[in-house]
Known about the structure:
Elements: H1 2-16, E1 27-35, E2 46-51, E3 56-61, E4 67-73, E5 76-84, E6 87-96, E7 101-108, E8 124-125, E9 135-138, H2 139-143, H3 147-150, H4 153-157, E10 164-166, E11 172-174, E12 181-185, E13 188-189, E14 207-213, E15 227-233, E16 242-250, E17 255-264, E18 268-279, E19 295-309, E20 312-326, H5 331-336, E21 343-360, E22 363-379, E23 388-408, E24 411-431, H6 433-442, E25 455-460, E26 463-475, E27 480-492, E28 496-509, E29 515-525, E30 556-569, E31 573-585, E32 588-592, E33 599-621, E34 626-646, H7 652-655, E35 659-661, E36 668-678, E37 683-692, E38 725-726, E39 741-742, E40 746-760, E41 763-773, E42 781-783, E43 792-793, E44 798-806
Parallel strand pairs: 1-7, 6-8, 12-15
Antiparallel strand pairs: 1-4, 2-3, 2-5, 5-6, 9-14, 10-11, 12-13, 14-15, 16-17, 16-44, 17-18, 18-19, 19-20, 20-21, 21-22, 22-23, 23-24, 24-25, 24-26, 26-27, 27-28, 28-29, 29-30, 30-31, 31-33, 32-33, 33-34, 34-35, 34-36, 36-37, 37-40, 38-39, 40-41, 41-44, 42-43
Amino acid sequence: MKVRYLSYFLLLSILIIPATLFAQGEGAIHGAVVAIADDSMIPGANVSLRSISLDESTEVRTGADGHFGFQRLVPGGYTLTVTHGSFLTETYQLTLRPREVLNITMELTLRPVETAIEVTEEANPIPTIHSPSSTLIGAGRMDDLPMPQRSNLTDVIVASAPGMIRGHDDFVHVRGSEIALNPFINGISFWENAHALFSPGLGADYIESINVMTGGFSAEYGNRFGGILDIVTKSGFSMDNEGSLSLGVGTALRHNGSIEFGGHTENASYYLNVGGFESARFLSPPDPRSIHNTGRGARSFAQFDFALDPSNFLKLVLMGDGANFELPKTSLDDELRPAMNASQRTRSQSLILSWDHIYNPDMFQTTSFYQKWSRSHLLPASDPLGAIADSERSLQTFGIKSELTRFFGSHTVKGGIDLVMLRPDEDLFYQYEGFREFSHDQGLPHLHIHDRAPITLDDQRTGGQISVYLQDKIQLTSALTMDVGLRYDQYSLATSDFQFSPRLNVAYRFGSGTVLHGSYNSFFVPPPIENVLVNSAGLTSQIEEFGEPLPPLRAMVENQFELGVTQPVGRLMRLGLTGYYRISNDPSHTVLFPDSRIYAYSNFDKGKAYGMEIKVEVPTIVPLGLSGYFNYALGRVYFWNPVTAGFSTEADHLHETSRFLAPMDQTHTLTSGFTYRHRPTRLWSSLSFEYGSGTPGSHGEDAHAEGSPGEPEEEHHAISIGPVQSGGHEDEEPGHAETTERVPQHFTQNLTIGWDALMDGDQPRLTLQFNIENLSDNLYLVAQESAFTPGQYSIPRMYSGSIKVRF
């Protein structure tokens, strides 16, 4: 069956895509050179593009219409220089983000005849027109992180951009989104949640750069919109038959190792990366002690690039990942239920085959065939006082994505189609009776299952989604840029739905370098693929508190408005300020089967999130050896009852119409850090900080809750669970008195000390690193959102060290 579907999609790709290109990078720079005096086009100008990170340059000459183009560019910093015998030389600096396409107008001043002195000025920075919430993370910044944090991409991201909120079971919530992180790997988005409980996830060692976006999305992005992670992977074209070996050790068995190697010829390149990790604190535990919490995993990555001719390129990406881990338990479990030892295994393998074709300097096309197989198996515990939870799910994914980019003067038009077939297979057995006895003895909240029978499901379906999008990035004036687009998604699996999603992003650049941003984005979010069949099987009919099945989980529709400004401070520092307002219909929320780690989802009636974010970036100040960042978010997230679809264990939500603070609501969130490098000794150190004011300790109440139109207001009773604190005045919205209890605030620090012991020019050959995480040993409760959801505790003070050898 797998071979048949694979053959169908390969045949389809051959029939509908006549020409393609696979390349080192997916970025491009296109532009025109004009005379500043009269805006006339300047033919025959030399345009040189130099990569700051790769120390490579290439040069083109403008055509008769004054236009030029560079394709197949990797993300990073560039210097763009324009020279012409009749005009003064102009130099610009810019940062190209993953898969970004820039359309630039460069203005030259006529050279005075009487001038015989050549004046060289500093390069003019070209401000980004991205949303102020956008954050670019390069490989260098990821290398400075402790190796245990680099084992999982979510640990890399959580401190990178404003508004990243830690939630229960190590989830990362962004702007009120439960289904938050959406990785795009070289332009391809797979549907699985990157969290370790759902899939082996992604590592950081083979990533060249990530653009973390929480707003201002163009029409090409779909599926999930908490945080878009636009990832570009490493290529052998940037390596010369060289590699590195990294080994790390740490307390709590947090040991890591990886090796990479890459190289290239004139027309082909290869890059290989293999790594493994283990930890006795694999997941954040539901107890200050970490009990039964050991995990081990391995990752492998390979990328091959081929230049068939000057216009055609191929890229093949292969990934294989797996993890075996224990599910942590509490001290009470360890004492009264010693055999409550559940575990889980996750496996995945992925393939992305891309074809790129450059028609001419003004038009290029990228087409990809992608495939993924993933499997997650929850192995049950054997204690007679525990629930028996045995869940196995697998997913087959096949897809084809093709997009065409065309430059028309000041227009950059991109259109694309993405066809994906999804084939989930789910097998569930859940016997609640053992935990029912335990909860009775301990006075814990519990459910009642009809006839005390197990909840079971064995189902397999085939469906998918068709997505079509068209967008135009218009340089209306030298200062005003508009990105307007429309996306259409048609989804069919356990349910069927479709949506047209308009996108509008506007940026205006003032002469001082200040950039004003505004956007309206409509989102269509299909139901989470994890346990999608469980969520749509009406299993609440077996719970006495419900007594009826809920409808299948629905797609979520959102609208987000954003207004922000970026302001350069000097020539190095950049300040960003963003305000956003987000409203959702049928927002999804995770639900746990009691006494297990079987995750399901439910839809609430509606949701709302709004807030303000501040971001400061300080690239390396070379004379001082300093760099840093600062992120702050002020936010508020609400959900509205009732629960309308999916699966739930809290029947109160079925009959109420009240508003309550969502589990990921956190009033204040702050992350910051700085790095100092002492060039003479090659020593460096970094210090990072994280603060959170605390998430709700229950589905709390709003004393002035808003009922749905035409419905009476009902009081929502909170269940107090765990060591929580009452929300103070900072949690109050004008006109509303909050009574929600919150987990305590937290403030932690991480210290890293490194030494580039051996150097080869500017390239370190041997790097030693020592890390202290949670320097102040602040062991805090991260989240505790409901009676049936275990709490989550942070790590205590932890030590680790690593060595990296480049060869």
